[in-house]
Structure formats: C-alpha cells, structure tokens
Amino acid sequence: MTAYTYILRCSDNSLYTGWTTDLKRRLTEHNSEDQGAKYTRARRPCKLVYYEAFENEDETEAKRSAMQREWFIKNKMTKKQKENLVIQFQGRIE
Predict the structure, then answer these.
(1) Hey, which residues does 69 pair with through a beta bridge?
(2) Which of 2, 19, 30, 49 would disulfide-bridge 70, Cβ 3.0–4.6 Å?
(3) Secondary-structure percent of the chain, ordered helix, strand, coil, rounded to 5
(4) Domain assignment of residue 94, yes or no
(5) pLDDT tens for the 94 residues of the chain, in order
(6) Using CA atoms, how far apart are residues 71 and 32, in angstroms rounded to an integer?
(7) Could you give the count of Cα atoms lying within 13 Å of 20 in the half-sphere of its Cβ?
(8) Could you tell me the residue range of the domain that residue 34 belongs to?
(9) Is 42 part of a structural domain of the chain?
C-alpha cells in the first residue's frame, strides 16, 4: 500500500499540502467543480509540484506516515522551506 503527501501550487501562487492514496485522482478532484478541498476550489487550477511516497504492507501505517508528514509540512515548515522543497523536487514529477 502506498500513501502520498503532496503539495499543490494554486493559481494565486499559494501552496496547498495534503495526503492521499491516489495522486492522480486527488489532483483531478482538486481541479473539479464539485470536489477537492475548500481552499483549492477558489484557487484553481492547481498543479502538483511535490510529493513523497510512503510504502508499507500495513495500509494504516502508510496512511499514518503520510498524515504525519502532511502535518509537519503544514504546521512546522515556513513558506520559504516549502518553496525549497518544491525547488529541490523540480523535474522529478512523473
């Protein structure tokens, strides 16, 4: 089982951090009319600019790792630190 922590760049240049088990589906949801997070609805389109994968045979552990990383990025990192993550990640998105 794989879970992901991801960062989106919104149309207003802000960053949104979340977690999911399906990156492609979640990005589609963020950019759809009726799904996605309240924050991203008013800031479409959103582009995937960073992600981390957490693999574990135990689905609960994979999700827990992704959620913990999401919490850390949202609550402990400055905008500059998040921007540095994105810059370092450039070119690695599939």
Answers:
(1) none
(2) 19
(3) 45, 25, 30
(4) no
(5) 999 999 999 999 999 999 999 999 999 999 998 888 889 999 999 999 999 999 999 999 999 999 999 999 999 999 999 999 999 998 665 5
(6) 24
(7) 19
(8) 2-89
(9) yes
